[in-house]
Amino acid sequence: MDFSTLTLEIGAAALALILLVVGLFLPDGKKGQVGIVAALGFAFLLVLSFLAPGSKGPFFMGQYMNDGISVLFKQIFILGSLLVTLMSLRFTRRFEDARGEFYVLLAFSLVGMMGMAGATDFLTLYIALELMSIPLVVLTAFEKGSMRSTEAGMKYVLLGAMSSAILLFGLSFLYGAAGSFGYGAVMAALTGGQTGPLVVIGGIFALAGLAFKVAAVPFHMWSPDIYEGAPVPVTAFLAVASKAAGFAALLRFFPVVLVPLGLGMTTLIVLIAALSMVLGNLTAIPQTNIKRMLAWSSIAHAGYMLLGVMVASFAGAAALVYYLLVYLFANVGAFAAVTAWSELSGSDEISSFKGMWKKSPLISTVFIVSLLSLAGIPPAAGFIGKFFLFVEVAHKGYLWLVALALVMSVVSLYYYVSVIKTLVSEAPEGETSKADIPLALRAVMLVSAVSTVVLGVLPGPVMGYIRNILSTLSS
Hints:
- This protein is mainly α.
- The protein has a domain at 282-475.
- The chain contains 19 helices and two strands.
- It has helices at residues 7-25, 33-51, 68-91, 99-118, 122-140, 147-178, 183-191, 197-213, 222-229, 232-258, 263-284, 290-311, 314-345, 356-359, 361-375, 381-396, 399-425, 439-457, 460-474; strands at residues 57-59, 64-66.
- Strands 1-2 form a two-stranded antiparallel sheet.
- Strand 1 (57-59) and strand 2 form a beta hairpin.
- Helix 3 (68-91) runs antiparallel to helix 4, helix 4 (99-118) packs antiparallel against helix 5 (122-140) and helix 16 crosses helix 18.
- The radius of gyration is 21 Å and the shape is globular.
- The relative contact order is 0.09.
- The model has no long low-confidence stretch (mean pLDDT 87).
């Protein structure tokens, strides 16, 4: 066992323990410094992921793998954790008795996400999934005085437990067919002809459990309520890092386990993707709460991302990773703007955004750039992200699916532009004071907006890096 394979995982776990100890020893008035230590730790891990991502190859008899896919996803997880930590520095001030615990939970959830990206064994996947999910439940219910936050945490733990049970039930059938928890052994068994009805049922149940984690239809109903009830920084973390972890698991699971089961599984993925795009975009239109609207938007984007999983190729994986990076910056930018504005207006309702442009051009600009990217309007990066994905799906022969995705992208313009119209053209409500944006939150907004534009105008270097990592570390 070469422990250098787990360089980033060990670093994230060590950071979580350091934050726990630092939080215990700091006096009550200094608890906020835990967030600064967390931000510095995540920044160090991000740099380390580029300079020393760990030794390539399997770990512990093939139950875990450090390759191109896992390295790229770990970089996305760390980047998302860093941005959400910076977003949370002001938010956690209201929890003087538990400010340190917020960042400890973020770090432990990050360890679970990394485990999902590298898991090549059913047990490893499940343990990593629970390590990610349990801290997220606590973070969702972190506002103890808020009924909405408590309700969201309760729904998350109940529905999360149900999805885990469904996943385990499906995995048990696959284990029965292969006699092993390892992806390689399962693929060999299924390719060898052990694909009876119970194995197909097992594949469907396993796919359902993972589809819950990415909020894909019809396993999406937890998403709007939990997004609305959770604190805004936690909602951002759920929307970007948690969703990326689900796709990291799917990207390994689908080609190895589900593809050998035949055309039926590919058709099922296509159906889930199509339903997610249609239902997510259409249901986002009548929403009056910005967090619920972004939740339904997230469901629609899960449908787009599933196209990259369905392609099951090197180019499809590269396009999916690029799309997830673009999606991360767009969502973090949007939620950072919502965080800054909701602290001024005291509301998450879209109607409260009236006159945002006059009160804070910075918040408005970042929000507009983020929404345009989510809609896929150039020069924002969402356009080129969708272009890469749709081209690979077209090469696969699913032209009707590309046409549906394009139509749904046009539909999404309606509700994104409606929000932009509200904040730009309508008169302010009330006497909202000028925006006082903390330095860390301002930095998050600027990084997100600038990155969104740069990735849209100059996609070549980043896509070249993604393809290089996938080819060199995965070969």
